């Protein structure tokens, strides 16, 4: 059972991890796919906006202005920077109109507001008649030349499209000869998506929410199943323990009974009255012991709502003194019982029989678990009369502290056989105190001792007392 449940728990945890990893992987894949499809959609939408005669005419206009300046450049009237500036200025002038047009187009085609677009020139090359080439704008070396849209660094965006233009410009040069320049011009379209992650998160919000709910659901299910499994395992262990204990407890009286009956049936014993009297006395004692054992199981298993209290007004200090007096009589000399009892001024309603049973159970445990100095205290703390019973015995580990009031719970496996018991004593005490609307609690340190607190409300049954 132990290996089996451990394997089951490990299997469940492994499956949970595997499922979570798979779910994470699927979400990540979906995120990636959505991101790509968003990029493709945006790219197509931009295409629909800018592939249009109006935009072509704008580009044509600034390119023409630039080309018309080439003769001045060739004649040395302007330098390269001024030539490039012409293109920049011309494009810049058209850009305002373009931006308005783009905005309208974006609204019309439903382009996301976080998508930016720009058109730029990345290469301008002149080829002269003699085959000589002059680079005006070097691709990948010079920064690209922004023309239309919203400017952003190229490496932050995506290239949508790029194409080369090639056209001739003929003019009369400084020497009065006709000269032709071939212009190679490369234009590129880029887009940039601002805050891509938050757009994607918004789009995937429902999916993430459902995934999160499923995750919480699975975690709850698995932890609930594991808890149940452990509970069942513990109950089964407790049952086996109880059966072992009770069998162990029954063996001795039964063996003694069998010897005593054998003695009685023996011929010599029949003739000897002392022997037969002794055997009968033994049978009676063992019979009583068996009866006690059965009573203990039946009575101590009662839940608090099955305990019938016969309440009577009691001055707790006097009552506890009496219980301690009686208990002291049963104690061997090596065990000390100390008392610090605060005198009670008002009686409270308790069932004397049950409360004394609870106190004696705790005191018996103190002796059983190797206490040599026991202390009983009575104090009124806030609304409770607190009976504190402490010992300097073996103590209780932190882990076990939570379990000792459970039905059939006994101390850990290794020293189970050193201390006899059925694991019902503290359960019964807790039920008795609960029936009095009180609280039972324990503080303990291993190898140092334990302190039990039986707290009974001072107003318990007060309405009955005055009424
Ligand atoms: P039992 O004494 O028959 O085992 P109880 O219900 O009285 O059953 O106690 C349950 C467990 O609580 C014990 O098995 C023991 O581990 C622990 N326990 C109870 N009282 C003490 C004590 N005074 N010192 C140490 N351990 C204790």
TrEMBL record:
Its EC number is 2.7.13.3. Pfam families: HATPase_c (PF02518), HisKA (PF00512). One of its GO terms (molecular function) is phosphorelay sensor kinase activity. Residues 245-460 form the Histidine kinase domain. It catalyses: ATP + protein L-histidine = ADP + protein N-phospho-L-histidine. Keywords: Kinase, Membrane, Phosphoprotein, Transferase, Transmembrane, Transmembrane helix, Two-component regulatory system. The chain crosses the membrane at residues 204-226. This is histidine kinase.
């Amino acid at each position: 059972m132990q290996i089996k449940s451990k394997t089951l728990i490990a299997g469940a945890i492994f499956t949970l991890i595997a499922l979570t990893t798979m779910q994470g992987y699927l979400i990540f894949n979906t995120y990636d796919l959505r991101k790509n499809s968003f990029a493709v959609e945006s790219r197509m939408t931009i295409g629909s906006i800018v592939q249009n005669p109006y935009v072509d005419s704008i580009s044509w206009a600034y390119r023409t202005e630039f080309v018309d300046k080439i003769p001045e450049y060739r004649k040395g009237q302007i330098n390269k920077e001024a030539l490039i500036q012409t293109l920049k200025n011309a494009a810049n002038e058209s850009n305002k109109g373009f931006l308005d047009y783009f905005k309208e187009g974006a609204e019309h085609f439903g382009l996301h507001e976080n998508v930016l677009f720009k058109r730029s020139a990345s290469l301008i090359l002149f080829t002269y008649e003699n085959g000589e080439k002059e680079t005006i704008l070097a691709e990948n070396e010079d920064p690209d030349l922004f023309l239309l849209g919203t400017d952003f660094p190229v490496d932050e965006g995506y290239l949508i499209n790029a194409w080369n233009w090639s056209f001739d410009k003929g003019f009369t040069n400084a020497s009065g000869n006709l000269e032709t320049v071939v212009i190679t011009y490369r234009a590129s379209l880029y887009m940039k998506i601002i805050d891509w992650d938050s757009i994607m998160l918004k789009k995937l919000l429902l999916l993430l929410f459902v995934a999160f709910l499923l995750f919480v659901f699975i975690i709850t299910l698995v932890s609930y199943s594991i808890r149940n499994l452990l509970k069942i395992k513990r109950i089964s262990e407790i049952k086996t323990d109880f059966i072992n204990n009770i069998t162990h407890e029954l063996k001795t009286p039964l063996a003694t009974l069998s010897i005593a009956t054998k003695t009685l049936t023996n011929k010599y014993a029949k003739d000897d009255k002392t022997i037969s009297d002794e055997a009968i006395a033994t049978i009676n004692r063992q019979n009583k012991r068996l009866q006690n054992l059965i009573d203990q199981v039946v009575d101590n298993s009662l839940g608090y709502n099955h305990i019938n209290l016969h309440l009577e007004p009691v001055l707790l200090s006097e009552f506890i003194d009496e219980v301690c007096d009686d208990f002291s009589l049963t104690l061997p000399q090596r065990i000390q019982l100390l008392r610090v009892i605060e005198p009670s001024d008002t009686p409270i309603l308790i069932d004397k029989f049950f409360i004394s049973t609870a106190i004696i159970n705790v005191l018996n445990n103190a002796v059983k678990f190797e206490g040599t100095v026991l202390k009983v205290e009575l104090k009124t703390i806030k609304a409770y009369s607190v009976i504190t019973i402490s010992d300097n015995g073996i103590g209780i580990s932190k882990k076990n502290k939570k379990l000792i009031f459970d039905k059939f719970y006994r101390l850990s496996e290794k020293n189970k056989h050193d201390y006899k018991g059925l694991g019902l004593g503290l359960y019964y005490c807790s039920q008795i105190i609960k029936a009095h609307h009180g609280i039972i609690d324990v503080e303990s340190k291993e190898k140092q001792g334990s302190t039990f607190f039986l707290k009974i409300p001072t107003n318990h049954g007060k309405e009955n007392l005055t009424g």
